[in-house]
Structure formats: C-alpha cells, structure tokens
Specification:
CATH class of the largest domain: Mainly Alpha
Helix content: 40-55%
Strand content: 5-15%
Number of helices: 7
Shape: elongated
Distance between the termini: 55 Å
Radius of gyration: 24 Å
CATH topology of the largest domain: Four Helix Bundle (Hemerythrin (Met), subunit A)
Largest sheet: 5 strands, antiparallel
Order of helices and strands: HHHEEHEEEHHH
C-alpha cells in the first residue's frame, strides 16, 4: 500500500504530509521554548537590585562570553544558509552539490556544539566567593595547587564539599579583575587578578557557576542545553540524509527533496531559537 501525499501536496491544505507534520511539531516547540523564555524574562525583571555577587539574590550580569556567543551565532546562521543551498541543489538535480552543502551544515552544527562545550567548561571552573567580612569575588579556585581541567568535575567544589575534604593543605582564589572588594566592580584602579589565601572558616559561600548556585545559571543551562540537544538531533538527521538516507534519491527523488525541505525547516527553527536566545540571555 502506498502512502498518499508523500511528494504531492494535499488538495485541501496545499501541503504534503511531512510538511504539515513539521509545522504542527514546530508549533509545539514554540510553546516549549516560549515557556522557558517567559520564565527567564520574568525571573530577570523580578530579580533583586544590586550588583552580583555582592548582593546574594541579585541577577548575574556580564558573566557570559559574548565574543564566543557572537561567533556561535555566525556559525548557526551559516548553517542555515547552507541547508537552503543543499535543498536548492536537489531542485537543480545536482546531488553532489547537495551533499557538499549538507556536510558543511553538519560541520557547522558540530562546531557549534564543540564551542558550547568549551563555554560550559568555563562556567564549571569559574566560582563565586563570599567571605564572612562581606567581601565578594568571582574567579578561579585552586585547592592543593590543583584546579579542574577540561570537564573535570572531580575538582569542582562547593563550600560543603571543601569542608568535607580532609587533605586540604592550601586554598587559593584568583579573583577576576574589577570584581573585587564587595561590590563586583573592584577596587579603584584594580585591573589585575588578585590572589587570596583562604581558610574554610573565612568563607560564607563558595560555588562554581553551576545550576545549583543561582537561578540564572539554572535557567541558562536549561535553555542552552535543551537547544543544544535540538542542534545535535538536527545534525544527526541531516547527516543521515547526506549519507545512508540518500538512497531514496535514486528511487523517489521528489520525496527525498521534500524530506530535505522538512529537515531544513526544523534547522531554521533551531537557528531562530538561538537568534532569540543570544540577545536575551547574553546581552540583557
């Protein structure tokens, strides 16, 4: 039995089955991300006044790497262009050109994820420190002369874990420039890293930039990780179409072209989410 409307549009909707299905799916995705964006904005506008980390519940600002985020935005926009060129190549009956553009699209997707992985690691190894005397800092923690390597969670501590560690001989904290002395802006003329020698009884709060540390990090990791899963899923599907799934081109070229169009619509949605996510999370 042959399934109707896999390559020709339905007379009542003007759409073939897969295109109707992807638009319905994307409507549900808009509701998913719309809820998360709304939660972020409401939490942001209701945050306590003051400069983080000096004010405990104040909203962190300026902690995300804007140049990296900007570069990743360019990577995704490039992939959005190449996926259209891949579909257009099929329309022109040029399969080799289609595969070339699809490989570039997948490469851009994997590059985006790799860059995001590096950016995540920056957060996992960056700390907020508050002392009992009221001073607050952000920076990097070195315990017993060691600090975490790339994605090394075994040396990422909060205050409770640090106090429970029995073999601590030294705790050093390298504070970020212009982030010292209690108000997050730094001492007058402070433009260099400041190294602190600490004991656990001096520390009121210590934790890395992890979801458990602050609402900002919780929702940042939730939205960006969910988006990253969409990027990974889209990349796997497009890679499948570029290689093993390309067999359909030989038997049902119009249906295969439609599948690429549907995959491209999903990919444009993924790109569009990031275009909204970048200014809202990174710049506001």
């Amino acid at each position: 039995m042959e399934i109707p409307y896999t390559d020709k549009p339905r007379p009542d909707t003007g759409l073939y089955n897969a295109k109707l299905g992807i638009w319905l799916f994307l409507a549900s995705e808009i509701m998913l991300f719309g809820g998360l964006f709304s939660a972020y904005i409401l939490l942001r506008v209701n945050a306590a006044e003051g400069v983080w980390p000096a004010v405990k519940l104040a909203w962190p600002h300026g902690l995300l790497n804007i140049p990296i985020g900007t570069f990743n935005t360019a990577v995704l926009i490039t992939s959005s262009v190449t996926v259209v060129l891949a579909w257009a190549s099929l329309k022109m009956n040029n399969f080799a050109r289609f595969r070339m553009f699809m490989v570039i699209t997948v490469f851009c997707a994997l590059s985006f994820l790799g860059i995001k992985s590096y950016e995540y690691n920056e957060k996992f190894t960056h700390y907020e420190l508050r002392l009992n005397d009221g001073k607050a800092y952000t920076g990097h923690l070195i315990v017993n002369g060691e600090h975490p390597g790339f994605w090394d969670f075994s040396k990422v501590y909060n205050l409770e874990q640090l106090k429970a560690k029995t073999n601590v001989t030294s705790i050093k904290f390298t504070a970020d420039p212009e982030k010292a002395e209690g108000h997050g802006h730094g001492e007058a003329g402070a433009h260099e890293h400041k190294e602190l020698d600490l004991k656990t009884d001096q520390i009121a709060h210590l934790d890395a930039f992890l979801p458990r540390n602050h609402t900002f990090f919780a929702i940042y990791f939730t939205i960006t990780a969910l988006h990253g899963l969409h990027v990974l899923g889209g990349a796997l599907v497009l890679a499948y179409f570029a290689f093993p799934g390309a067999k359909l081109w030989k038997t049902h070229p119009e249906q295969f072209t439609n599948r690429i169009e549907v995959g491209g619509l999903f990919w444009h949605f993924v790109d569009l989410v990031w275009i909204f996510l970048f200014p809202v999370v990174y710049l506001l």
